[in-house]
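Journal club prep, notes for RB
We'll compare a predicted complex against what the paper describes. Inputs for the pyrazine-2-carboxylic acid case:
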Amino acid sequence: MNKSLIIIDAQNDFADPNGALYCVGGETIIEPINRLMASGEYDLIVATQDWHPQNHLSFAANHAGKKPLDIIDVSYGKQVLWASHCVQDSFGAAFHSRLDTFRFNFIVRKGARAQIDSYSAFFENDKVTSTGLERLFGGGYELDFAGIATDFCVKSSAIDALRLGNKVSVLAGACVGVTAEGAANALDEMRSLGVLIKP
Ligand code: VGL
Ligand code: ZN
């Protein structure tokens, strides 16, 4: 047994119906994730936490005249703008209250630099700044991914994990997307790159 579970952004802003970037069905994946964590299948359980300062460049509110889902040019390419979310130490940034956080071995906080967004658990969106996680899973590990959002942070994390030389699965029944269509496309894209998509 040498398999780890990486839970992406199972936080109130994505998983609670009152969250700032609520992904429909987000609350329904919490119990499946708890069951995975309790299964005894995993050596290590890592959870990521989107963790932005209030002045983060991904927030539409920080760009005059912009609204959520507008796209802007930044130093590392294109950046989608979002409603303000996962502000450090806020309710929205906290893990969902039913998530069995006592099972986590590591928590990786990402997106804490005001000028870089971070979808991936491994590298921020400039694809150079490390979160540190590649030092734990730098290649040859079996990694299962669950969480939110399938079409952004789960996808970006799974692709980086693959690029690092790991064996990567996405547990589709324990993930939700920003949109259902985006999630379906993301699963197809990940599959085409060599990610195993499991129920
Ligand atoms: C995410 C948009 C902005 C995610 C994070 O967790 O997929 N999406 N920040
Ligand atoms: Zn974010």
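Talking point for the session: Strands lie at 3-8, 44-50, 71-74, 77-80, 106-110, 142-148, 167-176, 196-198.
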